[in-house]
Fold Pcp1p.
Amino acid sequence: MSGVSSVMLGLRPATRIFFRSNISVSPSRTFVSYIGRSQSTSILKNAPNLEDNVTNLQKIIPKRFFSQTSILKSRWKPIFNEETTNRYVRLNRFQQYQQQRSGGNPLGSMTILGLSLMAGIYFGSPYLFEHVPPFTYFKTHPKNLVYALLGINVAVFGLWQLPKCWRFLQKYMLLQKDYVTSKISIIGSAFSHQEFWHLGMNMLGLWSFGTSLATMLGASNFFSLYMNSAIAGSLFSLWYPKLARLAIVGPSLGASGALFGVLGCFSYLFPHAKILLFVFPVPGGAWVAFLASVAWNAAGCALRWGSFDYAAHLGGSMMGVLYGWYISKAVEKQRQRRLQAAGRWF
């Protein structure tokens, strides 16, 4: 697809517009991106000697993403002392959580909540951006919606640098696999980054693909795509350890579920658009690059290599392709209706 029609294309009158006017994407347009959602590793709750197991795991798990699993004491402040200069504690302090007596992760209720949120966002976003400030501003400035999402991610990253905020962030901005501290984390974790390189790479992907796609689809549709891809990524991330029967699991965070959704939608709509992986052009265009990312994430789930949350990547990718397919079908139906209407005049 070398371009987009210069007329307004809508799925339903006055509700959901899929493409804005006078926007085109040619195969010569180049996009650059790197997307990653990190996942930490923790010890089974019933480990006989927690500190010994942490020491042993440090020898076999890549230390970049390693997470200590010491239990929070009744008085939480002592864990935020000078010892937090330790690299592993600082980079993965969110893993120092309090054991929950209830145990278990309510996957059923989390899935129902996630699907309900996805439906609410899809059907409610047109009204939100039509009538509710400040969302109404983004209707005429869709690129600024992407910058607002960038700002939220940067702000949460800043909060991770403040020890007084760690308890709050641990509860709402981490997707726990062993138990749920707050169901809001199904969304909050998608705006959370602890390491600067993780934030930088994800925000580069959001800026590169998001600004173009938001202008094409409009703020309402882009917001729906982004948020629902993030939720789908979280749901896949929650279900994967159970389906794969993993004995060692840990919390995850990052915007990559949403970003893979944006990449999937963009690649489906503009399969021949040129993109770069860092500074290297990807042969075959956007769709080939996207399929390669799906293969990489599927292999990561099957072979369980590294410390990325491959399941979240796949969940976001699937949602993005579904959006791309649905939008393309809606646009084609509108084109057929316009041709039929024009034919009556000749």
In short: Residues 310-343 form the longest helix (34 residues). Residues 53 and 110 are 30 Å apart (CA to CA).
